[in-house]
């Protein structure tokens, strides 16, 4: 893609994009995630030249990132457009209510064109989950890298995953539908497991960092990560089903972190 085209898709002045790419202007986190989304690479790759560089978020295994194909830019962009359109449709309507014709209409393509890139709806949904994992990974790298304080980093990590706003709710909806699919059909079980393990390990690593800094209680990190991620999963379902707001969920989780993970100043570990 030409730099001008990328800047247009980002809604960013081309001069600002050029300066950021040359290192004379700092990218804002949302600009990094937008650039990664438009170009189909990860924020980790943009910053380090590799998807696998370790940072504040655990890199996903290649199998749970969007699939890559030996194709030209036009085909790659169409494939990404189909995935993103389907992602929104699945999130808003649910897997069973979305037809291939609906995805084609949203992309201004024929159903035959959709089948050129994907064998069927099941494959598209699997790609939608990979897209969700990439979105979360990109957001975590872009937002958490500048934060050194372990308490702020853990709380920001959790805040980034709340089902808040249209995109946050959509991302959580894809996960919720994946859980139901794995529980009933068993399809996509390995992709789900790999993606969720990445998220769990990211939370655990943030806890370990806080323990090493003397800011968090000395309790097995996997135990704390299990309790925290389970709370997030359960409260997220309550938000999506209208029993809680995302703000209430946020307050519950921050309270849990303060009561069960963070060491109060002057208190023994």
Shape: globular
Largest sheet, in brief, is: none
Number of helical segments? 13
Beta-strand fraction estimate: under 5%
Question: What is the CATH first-level class name of the domain at 147-261?
Answer: Mainly Alpha
Output the CATH topology of the domain at 147-261.
Tetracycline Repressor, domain 2
Outline the low-pLDDT stretches: none
Order of helices and strands: HHHHHHHHHHHHH
In the CATH hierarchy, the architecture of the domain at 147-261 is: Orthogonal Bundle
The first-to-last residue Cα distance is 53 Å
CATH superfamily of the domain at 147-261: Tetracycline Repressor, domain 2
Architecture overview:
- Among the domains are: about 1-40, no CATH class; about 145-260, Tetracycline Repressor, domain 2.
- It is mainly α and about 270 residues long.
- The longest helix has 24 residues, at about 120-145.
- It is globular and about 60 Å long.
- The chain has helices spanning about 5-10, 15-20, 30-40, 45-50, 75-95, 100-105, 110-115, 120-145, 150-160, 165-185, 190-210, 220-240, 245-260.
- It contains 13 helices and no strands.
- InterPro entries: BetI_C, Cro/C1-type_HTH, Homeodomain-like_sf, HTH-type_TetR-like_transc_reg, HTH_TetR, Lambda_DNA-bd_dom_sf, Tet_transcr_reg_TetR-rel_C_sf.
